[in-house]
What we know:
The chain is α/β, with parallel strands linked by helices. It is 47% helix and 13% strand. It contains eleven helices and nine strands.
Amino acid sequence: xxxxxxxxxxxxxxxxxxxxxxxxxILKNGWEKFARTIKAENKDVKKAxxxxxxxxxxxxxxxxxxxxxxxxxxDPATWSDDDLLxxxxxxxxxxxxxxxxxxxxxxxxxxFFLHKLKDEYKEYKIIACSADSELALREAAKGKLIxxxxxxxxxxxIGNLNEKQxxxxxxxxxxxxxxxxxxxxxxxxxxxxxxxxxxxxxFPGGVNKLSDSKxxxxxxxxLMEPGxxxxxxxxKLHTDIGNNFVKxxxxxxxxxxxxxxxLKNRDxxxxxxxx
Length: 275
């Protein structure tokens, strides 16, 4: 494929439009009946609308703040399709945050489009990526040819490489790792999970023992949604553990905490259950 035969900026525009239209169609479906009901029953339009589109994980607070900003009429029956599309677009941006993985950064001349993306879409986090390079490095590590940790900016050769493998790894080192600091793949995943979604990491462990039978320290880790409590973690481990929850122990502080204890990132938690 010729470098300039495809413009990735168009991909972003297409995706934004598709997502906006998805929200719009959900809003538009049954809108006239919805608007009549609001007026006839004198309902709070913000609460009713939030309930109507709750499946999109749009909260009442989201709707309240967006409608306050837009200053639409209090009568939703007067809202035009353009109004609904504007509402859909703003709600989409608010509730479906995006990150742009600028893939194929290993191709010669791709920096041109990377800079164009960053100039055009300043509101998004844009990370240079090479998925092919990441796959090649992981396969090489799996085959005991190199030592490589996803996200690192280097690898160590530990096996016997043929000429083709050497050239491929040299290319990745020169055009991806040395130039961009990593393949970008792990950075995209980390940013999406920890920055956009704000998930936290929780480790199951004991007050008196942090290792497993093989001596591995805190070998397990769970991703939890922001606002998760001790009881949520108990159910994450197993339904029976959640149902028989008595208390939890914050292993770092060695303090007992109740089911409503708000978990913090990198907490080590032990769950006590009924016997």
